[in-house]
User: Fold Bacterial regulatory proteins, tetR family from Serratia marcescens.
Amino acid sequence: MAERAGVSVGSLYQYFPNKAAILFRLQSDEWRQTTDMLGRILADREKTPFARLRLLVQAFIRSECEEAQMRVALNDAAPLYRDAPEAQAVKAAGKDIVQVFMCEALPDVPQVTRRLAGDLIVGTLGAAGKQFSETPRTDPEIAAYADAMADMFCAYLADLNGHQRP
Assistant:
């Protein structure tokens, strides 16, 4: 890895004393990038909530497929950092972003229902994205899967709102 990064092994170990430290840093960076993407897409009020949700699903599924090999290594070290303060902070930030979006997407729906909808969408997106990305996929397969999932989420939100999708 040091050679690929263009640094000496000694330099690498100066900042990362062991494999777990390297993996933790990679995982922290991945969490941050995903949370930034979530925030950027869901906060773009120039697009409708349904359009933003569709963009998020497409970007997330593509990202999961691109990062599938790295995720195997990161998952091996997951027990070492799953409960770290950094992990908790990123989860909380993501949850806040989703809840703000849900308030906008479901303005006339009770908060408890919005929270449940957000949890279902995030949980389903994460689990299905992980499972789907475990097999190498072509761009058309990724697009078709993401579109179908986005259709499902948009139909769910439209149903909660009591009207058809725009």
Remarks:
- The domain at 23-161 is CATH 1.10.357.10 (Tetracycline Repressor; domain 2).
- The chain is about 80% helix and 0% strand.
- Residues 19-42 form the longest helix (24 residues).
